[in-house]
Specification:
The complex is a heterodimer of chains A (526) and B (422).
Chain A lengths: L2 H26 L5 E8 L9 H13 L4 E5 H7 L3 E8 L8 H4 L5 E6 L9 E3 L6 E11 L2 E10 L2 E3 L4 E8 L2 E8 L3 E4 L7 H14 L12 E8 L5 H13 L4 E5 L9 H14 L3 E6 L9 H17 L4 E6 L10 H4 L4 E4 L4 H4 L16 E5 L16 E6 L5 H13 L12 E6 L2 E6 L2 E4 L2 E3 L18 H7 L1 H47 L1
Parallel strand pairs in A: 1-2, 1-3, 3-4, 4-11, 12-13, 12-18, 13-14, 14-15, 15-16, 16-17, 17-18
Antiparallel strand pairs in A: 5-8, 6-7, 6-9, 9-10, 10-11, 19-20, 20-21, 21-22
Helix pairs in contact in A: 2-5, 6-7
Chain B lengths: L2 H34 L16 E7 L6 H9 L8 E8 L5 H11 L5 E6 L8 H11 L4 E4 L4 E3 L3 H11 L3 E10 L6 H25 L9 E4 H7 L9 H11 L3 E12 L5 H22 L11 H30 L12 H19 L8 H12 L1 H21 L17
Parallel strand pairs in B: 1-2, 1-4, 2-3, 6-8
Antiparallel strand pairs in B: 4-7, 5-8, 6-7
The chains are: A alpha/beta (526), B alpha/beta (422).
């Protein structure tokens, strides 16, 4: 290439970069406002029993992976202008009038509950719906999947010039729009969101409210998870269930409990045989978190996960994710631990109910970019998800559920319009340490730095396994007994010694008193 | 299970095993001393039946202490014509000889004999000096005192009476106390150790098994026995332990008598103490190796237990303490991780309490020893003085190996004395 051509290339590249930078800076200028959703609630909300309601809304936002900031109305007045998405929770009777907060706000707005004080933005109370009323509504979540429930409203109204309405609210035989709004504004008059029905409804409406593109709303798949399967569970029962799902050509997940010792036992080998067969036939395996009753020690947890992952990797079982309790996402000390798995399943969302509102916004976990799957909001007995607005998991517990129930749920999931997610169709990363890592990327599996395959090849299970159940091993594996024994012996020895000390001191005193006259006599005789 | 965890279990098991043995010995020792304390220990003989006693005092460069010792020996409450004092001035280069000559002139009526040796026949250790003194002894009973001792006036009479009264006793040993206990913190530790190990432990072994090793001073032994065993073993650095095992093998036992007390000067400086203890450890290992074969000999009787006890002390106790210290240090430095389920810190605390209680039990039997100061010292001792034992034995083993490899002659390391202020 000649010099002039090189110079031309450089000039063109420079011009392109400058223009790209300019268009980028132009595109981010509206983003001076926070990308988070601002949730505003009246000051009286908590004192008037709205904590559960706010927790339910937080769960919905978390499940949809929205970062939210939570402010009381008084604090929100100046903050609203910094947001582009605001939810006004008027689910409780309050003195606070929303005009003073929302006046001048022109971003996305979702109003939940009361309609009063919102005339300026087009939401007007309906006289027939004034006061606290119970009505019914039938909500359609998907084709052929509508559910009816009784709902509660309080001084409800309607968005007057609605360009969008959805479903009906029936009160005293009269029908009103359940959801009404415009491009940017939504109004839902319900005041109680703690039921699964209300959460699912809210999730669907939020998805619609914030979907600004012309294309259909993005839908997520769901996961069938055989939950908390212990390594020494009945492998034949597990095999039957796995075979059933394989027969239906379903994708599924097995969440296995961690194992720290005896990973070389034949029972573990047999268990892993079923797991390897499953992962080669549409199934995937994730690691369930250890059951920890007290505070979680991050260092110990890392060690436990490390050991458990190593034991499964050694048996050819490739763990693609981690199942954790929701409590852990509130614990900042565990951020590093959770980040060791890109894919995280949450067993439940109960933790929101135990934490105050001011902690809902402290969730740094979402910022890590992990793939999170939340438990499905159960709308019927099967418990399978009927909403596709976030990835959800239907957990089936082999210990507490009968085979018939499990098969019925599997059948229902199979017939559901929401497809089952194949975990092998997504990328996954597990990193415990350099010797216990897994990367599934572009259909290539790398475990501990070496390429591995998921095809199933039976392994031989040792028949004459030495369980090392002799006296020595019994001794070293059950030190608690020796510990108790030695403490008991020491206690007896201490009590005995103290008694003997008293005895000897008594004897010494007697001797001393006896010696005094003798010594006096001796001195006198001198 | 990792190697560190297996070693940890071994260490914990071994330490507790040895500690429980010592607890049992302490209980036996307590009962024995408690019983002894109920009498004055005398078994009076008709005055003319007291045997002739030769008191042997080996002295190598003992000018600083020997005068006080001899004066104390001259002050024995024992018929004057029934005991002689033979001081073996063993190749001394100091004023020991002239001091002894002065004493002999001062007490012409007493039988104070001084045998001076030169480097040709003497200066090779305590055993050799005792053999020289024994060759000149006339008594049917031999009493041994170190040159730094100040025995109480009754000590010799008590020892002799108990020896004469019991034909199965080959020797009778008394108790030795620390004369300079307040000289330094080291001598305070030595004082407690002396009472607990030398006295209580010995008493426990005697109570249960009629086993008791000679401590090197303040004991009497039958002349006939010394003649039969051919004197003291000149190769042994702890001639006292060595001759004890030979007495056992002859079918005699050695009796402990805590009422017969001598006071001795203990090293007040760490280097002096260390050298003395290394010599003792070397001597004990020599005796253990020499007699270990009897552990499996049924004819050896209860002596087997003593050989086993010594073997356990220098193998299991030593290795478990080294292992636990390494694991403890490794744990602190983050180099060793031990995860043993079941063992609690309560147990660790209990081990300390048992150790402290064991020591305090011993001190409770003594006058002016059972107090808060002692409690503090005992606790401090566990983490300081007691730890030094490991280094002492390691050095002793190293020296013995070097002696064997280089074919070096076993050398007697004289304990350095100092002038005590009253």
């Amino acid at each position: 290439m000649r010099f002039s051509q090189v110079l031309l290339c450089l000039l063109l590249s420079g011009a392109y970069l400058l223009s790209a930078q300019r268009s980028f800076s132009q595109s981010i200028s509206p983003a001076e406002k926070s990308e988070n959703i601002l949730v505003v609630y009246p000051e009286e909300a908590i004192s008037r029993g709205q904590a559960d309601n706010l927790s339910a809304i937080a769960q919905v936002l978390f499940a949809m992976r929205y970062q939210a900031d939570w402010l009381e109305a008084a604090e929100a007045k100046d903050a609203v202008k910094n947001y582009n998405k605001v939810i006004w929770c008027a689910t409780v009777d309050s003195e606070r009038m929303p005009e003073e907060i929302l006046t001048g706000y022109d971003g996305f707005l979702l109003v939940l509950g009361q309609a009063k004080g919102l005339d300026a933005i087009g939401i007007h109370p309906i006289p027939e719906l004034s006061g606290k009323l119970i009505g019914t509504t039938k909500y359609r979540f998907a084709d052929n999947y509508s559910f009816e429930a009784s709902v509660e409203v309080l001084d409800a109204g309607i968005f007057q010039e609605a360009s969008y309405t959805n479903q009906e609210l029936n009160v005293y035989g009269e029908a009103f729009p359940l959801v009404s709004g415009s491009d940017r504004i939504r109004y839902i008059p319900l005041v109680d969101y703690t039921s699964n029905f209300a959460k699912a409804l809210l999730m669907q409406e939020i998805a619609h409210w914030l979907w600004v593109w012309d294309s259909p709303i993005h839908s997520y798949s769901e996961y069938i998870v055989l939950d908390a399967v212990y390594p020494f569970t009945d492998p034949y029962r597990l095999k039957d269930i796995v075979n059933y799902m394989v027969g239906l050509k379903m994708n599924f997940v097995i969440s296995v409990m961690p194992i720290y010792e005896h990973a070389d036992y034949p029972a573990m080998a047999l268990f892993c045989e079923v797991l390897r067969f499953a992962q080669a036939n549409g199934g995937a395996v994730i690691l369930h978190s250890p059951i920890i009753q007290d505070n979680v020690d991050p260092e110990l947890l890392t060690k436990q996960l490390n050991t458990a992952a190593g034991n499964y990797f050694d048996n050819g079982v490739w763990l693609l994710g981690l199942e954790i309790p929701s409590e852990w996402i509130f614990d900042k000390a565990l951020t590093d631990v959770l980040n060791r798995s890109r894919t995280l399943f949450l067993s439940e969302l109960d933790a929101f109910e135990r934490h105050p509102v001011n902690e809902y916004g402290l969730n740094t976990y979402l910022e890590l970019g992990n793939q999170q799957i939340v438990p499905a909001f159960r709308l019927d007995e099967s418990g399978i998800s009927h909403i596709a607005n976030c990835p959800t998991a239907v957990y089936l517990n082999l210990d507490t559920m009968t085979d018939d129930f499990i098969y019925a749920v599997v059948d229902a999931a199979k017939d559901s319009p929401i497809p089952m997610q194949d975990m092998w169709s997504m990328g996954h990363r597990i990193y415990m340490d350099d010797s216990k890592s897994l990367l599934w990327d572009r259909n290539t599996l790398t475990v501990n730095g070496e390429q591995q395959f998921i095809n199933y090849e039976p392994r031989e299970i040792e028949e004459n396994f030495d369980y090392k159940r002799n006296v020595y091993y019994r001794f070293v594996t059950n030190l608690a007994r020796q510990n108790r024994f030695l403490i008991a012996v020491s206690s007896v020895v201490l009590v005995l010694f103290i008694f003997l000390v008293f005895q000897s001191r008594r004897q010494m005193r007697k001797r001393f008193l006896k010696d005094i006259p003798n010594e006096t006599k001796e001195i006198a005789s001198r | 299970m990792t190697a560190a965890e297996i070693i940890s279990i071994y260490a914990v098991a071994a330490i507790w095993f040895m500690m429980l043995i010592n607890v049992i010995l302490s209980i036996g020792g307590y009962i024995y001393i408690y019983r002894c304390n109920q009498s004055d220990g005398h078994i009076p003989l008709p005055e003319d039946e007291y045997p002739m006693v030769s008191v042997l005092v080996p002295a190598h460069n003992e000018a600083l202490v020997v005068q006080r010792t001899v004066r104390a020996l001259l002050n024995f409450d024992y018929p004057d014509d029934k005991y002689e004092i033979i001081v073996i001035n063993d190749n001394s280069s100091d004023d020991t000889e002239s001091i002894l000559a002065g004493l002999a002139a001062e007490f012409p009526k007493n039988r104070l004999m001084c045998i001076s040796t030169d480097k040709t026949v003497g200066g090779t250790g305590k055993s050799n000096a005792l053999n020289i003194g024994f060759s000149a002894a006339r008594g049917s009973v031999i009493a041994i005192y170190d040159a730094d001792n100040t025995p109480e006036p009754q000590a010799l009479r008590l020892l002799v009476e108990n020896l004469v009264a019991d034909p199965k006793a080959g020797a009778v040993i008394g108790k030795f106390r620390t004369r300079n206990r307040n000289a330094s913190i080291l001598t305070r530790f030595v004082n407690i150790e002396t009472l607990s190990h030398q006295c209580m432990n010995q008493a426990g072994r005697f109570f249960f098994f009629k086993l008791c090793t000679i401590p090197g001073t303040n004991y009497v032994i039958r002349r006939s026995i010394v003649e039969q065993v051919g004197g003291w073993d000149v190769k042994a650095l702890s001639e006292d332990t060595e001759i004890s095992f030979r007495i056992y093998r002859m079918g005699y036992y050695i009796k402990q008598l805590p009422q017969a007390v001598t006071w001795e000067q203990e090293p007040h400086l760490l280097p002096v103490w260390f050298r003395q203890r290394v010599r003792w450890a070397k001597g004990n290992i020599y005796v253990m190796l020499k007699n270990f074969k009897y552990t499996f000999d049924r004819k050896a009787g209860p002596m087997r237990l003593d050989t086993l006890y010594y073997a356990l002390t220098y193998s299991i106790m030593l290795s478990s303490l080294i292992a636990s210290d390494i694991i403890f240090l490794g744990g602190i430095l983050g180099k060793i991780t031990v995860r043993l389920g079941g063992f609690s810190s309560t147990l660790w605390g209990m081990a300390i309490l048992v150790f402290v209680a064991n020591m305090m039990l011993t001190l409770s039997l003594e006058r002016n020893e059972f107090n808060l100061e002692s409690l503090g010292l005992v606790t401090l001792m566990l983490f300081t003085y007691a730890k030094l034992w490991v280094f002492v034995v390691i050095k002793a083993i190293f020296d013995l190996l070097m002696d064997a490899l280089l074919k070096r002659e076993v050398k007697w390391d004289k304990t350095v004395r100092y002038v005590e202020t009253e």
